[in-house]
Amino acid sequence: MIRVRPAYVIAGILLSVLLIGNIVLTHNLFTEPFPGHNDFLPHWQGTYSFWREGISPYDEQTTLRTQMQMFGRAAEAGEDPNLFAYPFFYTFFLIPLTYFSYPWAAAIWMVLLEVCLIGSLFVLLDLYQWRPKPWLLAWLLLWILLTYYTSRGLILGQVSLVVYLLHVLVIWLLARGQDRSAGVLLAISVLKPQMTFLLVPFLLLWALRARRWQFAGAFGLSIGLLIAVSFLLLPSWLTEWLTIVRLYPEYTAAAFPDSAGSPVWILFGYYLRAGDAVQGVVNIVLIGVLLWSWYEALLRQGEAAWLWAVMVTLTITNLVAFRTATPNYAVFVIPAMFYFRLVARRGRRWGSLWVALVL
C-alpha cells in the first residue's frame, strides 16, 4: 500500500487553490474586461472550429471568425490576417480549452504559461546545480515573469513559452539519462518548427554518435504518431498548412515592416541599411559558429561541450530564422542563467548582488 505524506497532500491542496485563484483573478481582472492574447486566439479558434464543428483550422471560415472576434470585421490589406499557421497536431493539446468560453480559456492559458516559466526556472537551477540565496531566488522568480520577452509572451498568449519549457526539460532529461521522455517532449516541441528546426537535427546527430538509441527512437515514434494521426483526422492538413507557411513572410512583411525578417536582417538590413552581401556574410559566420560547436560536441562527447552546443544552437536558431516573434527569445534564458550562476559563484561576496542589478 502506497502511503502519501500529509505534507504532500496539504501542499497539493494549497497549490491547487493558488492556481484556481490565479485563474479566477486573471479572468475577472484581465481576460474578461480586456480581451487580448492575440497570438492565442487563432490557435483556440482553429482548435474549436475543428474539434467542435468539424471545420479545418486552416479554412477561410475559421480565419474570418478569428478576425471578427479580434477586429469586429474582416482583416484589411496590410493587417495581420491571424491565420492558424501551425501543424495540425498542435490542436491535440488545446482540446480541453475548447470547452470554456474564450475569456476563461485565455485565463487558463495565461496561468499555464506562468507555470511554464516558473517551472523552467527551477529545472534550470537543478540542471546547473545552483542554489541561489532566498532573496535572489525571489528576484529570479520576479524577473522570469516580468522580463520583456517572457512578459510579452504572457500578454500575447504565445505558445513559444511552452516550447521553451519543453526545450529546458529535454536538456534536463538528457543530462540525467531519461532518453525516452526527452524524445517524446522534443517531438511535441516541433509544434513550433521555427524554434526547433536546428535543435532537432543536432540532437539526433548527437544521439546517433553517442548511441542514445532510445532517445532517437522515442522521438521518431512520437513525431511519426503525431503526423499519422493528423493525416487520419485531416488528410489535407499538410497541404493547407504549407500554403499558409508560404504566405507567412508576405503578410507579416506588410503588417510588420520593421520586423519582417530575421534579427540579422533587422539589425544589418533595416537599421544599418547594409546590403544582402553583408547579411549573407553575417549569416555564414553564425552558421560557421554553429557547425563548429556541433563538431566539438560530436567529437569530444563531453557534457560541457554538448551543453554549450545546445545553447549555441538555440541562440543562433533565433538569429537566422526568416522571422521570429520576440517571445521566442525566452530560450535565451537558458544560457543567461548559466552565466548568472557563474557570476554568482565566482563573484564571491558581491556576485549575487551583481546578478540582481543586471536583471
Please outline the helices and strands:
Layout: H1 6-31, H2 41-53, H3 60-71, H4 102-127, H5 134-146, H6 148-156, H7 160-175, H8 179-189, H9 199-209, H10 213-233, H11 237-255, H12 263-271, H13 276-300, H14 303-320, H15 333-346, H16 351-358
Describe it for me?
By secondary structure, the chain is an all-alpha fold. 70% of the residues lie in helices and 0% in strands. The protein is globular and about 60 Å long. The termini are far apart.
Number of helical segments with 4 or more residues: 16
Task: Using the alpha-carbon principal axes, give the shape.
Answer: globular
For the termini, the CA-CA separation is 48 Å
Taken in chain order, the helices and strands follow as HHHHHHHHHHHHHHHH
Q: Largest sheet at a glance?
A: none
Percent range for helical residues?
Answer: 55-70%
Q: Give the overall average pLDDT.
A: 89
The share of residues in extended strands comes to under 5%
Q: Unreliable stretches, pLDDT < 50, 5 or more residues?
A: none
Derived structural class: mainly alpha
Strand tally = 0
Tag the structure with descriptive keywords.
mainly alpha, 16 helices, about 350 residues
Put the structure in a nutshell.
This protein is an all-alpha fold and 359 residues long.
